[in-house]
Amino acid sequence: MGIFIEDNKLIIFTIAILLTVVAVHGTQYIEMETGTETFAEKDSRLYQDFEHLYLNIFSTHSIPIMIEGGDASNPELLNAIDRMDHLTRSIPGVVDTTSTALIVKEMNFQKNGRYEIPDSREKIEFYLKSSDTTGLIPQKSVTIMYINMERNVGENELRQINDEILNSIDLAQFPPGYTVTLTGFTAFNIAMEDLMNDTTGNLLIVSGLFMIIALYAVFRHVRWRILPLPLVFLGIIYTFGAMGYLEIPLTTASMAAFPILIGLGIDYAIQFHSRIEEELHRNDNEALAVIETIKHTGPAVLIALIITSLGFVSLLTSTVPMIQDFAKLLLIGIALCFLTTLFVGVSLIYGLHRIRKRRGEFARKYNLKFLIPSRREKKSQEDDIENEKMVQILSKISIITARHPAIILAIAGFLCIGGLYADFYVPLEADIRTFVPQDMPELIDLNRLGGYLGGQDSINLIVMTDNNADPELLRWMDDFESHLVDRRSHVHGSSSIVHLVKAHNNGKIPDSSQRVEDIYESLPDAQKDMYIYGGTMMHINLQIGDAFGVLGLEGMEVLVEIIEDDLKWMPPPPGVQITATGDPVVFTEVIFALTSGRTLMTLFGLTLVFFGLLIIYRDPVKALAPVITMLMVIGWNGGVMYYTGIEYTPMTATLGALILGIGSEYAILMMERYYEEKEKGMSHFQAMHEANVKIGKAIATSGLTTMFGFSALLASPFPMNQNFGLVTVISVGLALMATFVVFPAVMLVLDQWRDRRVAAKNRHETEININTV
């Protein structure tokens, strides 16, 4: 491979440019997802119940508009709302509206035969008091109107409808003193998608700036120290292109993948860059330097890449699609970054060295000013001094570790066990409202709407039956709803077709199916479609207010279980099936799936890494040493999170796999260099000391640069990503410390133990042969 790269630099650069063009074209196919499909598999029962049975059949897409700051019975206000009704009904995709203006006009038509807003404030107040205005006038100075849309409205159509409604608000000419706000989950989701789009680019820029600072600060012993950064961004461009062609969506989780890819990609670039500079310093033969670099560093980095991939593969076991997409993006990205640094990076350094070398020869030949030491060369001498300081520090750490491995392992093991125990008590942040920027105007508006309405969470029961006009079924529904509202404090109310049937039959449920069907026929489609579908499906809506925010994740799960238990104690008529779904049910199950499986995910990752190393090396010592080191880091990380009060989120629940993927690389690179030095005839201690000094600089540089890259997540406006960035920076720091302190102790203990056993076995065989002779 080294010979191929040395012979085909022009071809490599040409292919790289062509792939860049192809990748840029592929970015136009990237789609953003924020819906149910990011949380649940499309073929899962959870998704089918929520998306197909509830959202597509019974859920009504409504965009609420808050009107605050004045009397709800003001005729001028109602006329403006009436104008708003007319303007929005003409928007494609809008079915109808619900507002106080419509109620007043209908009441006025019934009383006076005139379908218009009366001029008398007293009449308006009378009409509003005589009607059901639940959810329309939560307070005297607050009026809410709803724009009801068709089901199955696409995301692009929602954006267009949202924009048209905003234009309608201006055209409706609301009277002075009133504040009109378009709010609801549609406006919130659109704003969040826009913020995600802006955030991805900003995070890459911030990450790049942090990387430049880190490279200037710690990558001081090589020329062209900024070169790893453009190489990594080239790999990121390829990743974006692959993302589009492979239809991997952009989600809140995949946004966090790019700083991780930058951190890992910069690591690969630094390893190759540092080694080729070392080879050029040893022997000023660029062709030989390329071959030696690929020969020694290539396999080490490739093995680290494979093991990192195995750590990330454990993320694919998650039942949450956005975590699976996160894993796919990481796996594709690290492979592309590796190939970019291997081919383009090494070729580029080779070419730059040749240009500089020829320039120097030309300068010396003609006695030009290039022979005079420049400020940069003087600066390089200063950097060499700084580099020596780093070597001295790493050398001292190596000596201490090698002399006291038992003490170091005992302390590290004790802290690991304590951390693993403390990890069970790390709190879980499950309120999805805390995952987005708290100062986001759309979130503030949404919370204000929830404050007026007392929360809008609901649990939706889907009733599947052979006959939805069966009086026995309706009576059971009536009794079951009354039971939940009367006995379960967090169920504040319920609505179903039963309430409409009773309202049209003197407060009673008819005794015959025919009478029920006649009532169904008389109901407006807009009302009927909310509660029955065809002749076999019905919907019960249980209002639970802000139960999710009040009860939290575990309390919400208990509430759902209580309702399911009630269904067992008060079973529906034979042949009827009930399914519980809705936003609280979906998010409760999803967040538990994300967080409760983190231990199994980590154990699976450890197992994959161990067997992966065992297959590659066919040596249990080489397989155990990195795994033991990373197990220590996982334990330490749990302890740090517990004692610092950092909470788990759906993103940090993946941390065990990420620590395995990222941290094992450092240990593998150190181990490869240790055995390379040992093969030269050095003792265990000398080989570890030499490895620590020679490759330690590159590992420390890449580790610190990776930490800087991850710290870019702290600049994200999404608190969940900030939390993830903070915890990841801590984890990489712990992995870096473990590589220099714990891994050498583990490696020396295991390798010396194995060599003693081999030596003892050889002595025993020799004694047997002598005795036999």
TrEMBL record:
Major location category of this protein: membrane
Compartments it resides in: Cell membrane
Cellular component terms (Gene Ontology): plasma membrane
Pfam families: MMPL
Domain SSD residues, every copy: 234-351, 623-749
Transmembrane region(s): 201-219, 226-246, 300-323, 329-352, 406-426, 600-617, 624-643, 655-675, 695-718, 724-750
Record has ATP-binding as a keyword: no
Top-rank lineage group of the source organism: Archaea
Annotated signal peptide: none
InterPro entries: MMPL_dom, Mycobact_MmpL, SSD
UniProt membrane topology term: Multi-pass membrane protein
Keywords from the named record: Cell membrane, Membrane, Transmembrane, Transmembrane helix
Descriptive protein name: Efflux transporter, hydrophobe/amphiphile efflux-3 (HAE3) family
Organism: Methanosalsum zhilinae (strain DSM 4017 / NBRC 107636 / OCM 62 / WeN5) (Methanohalophilus zhilinae)
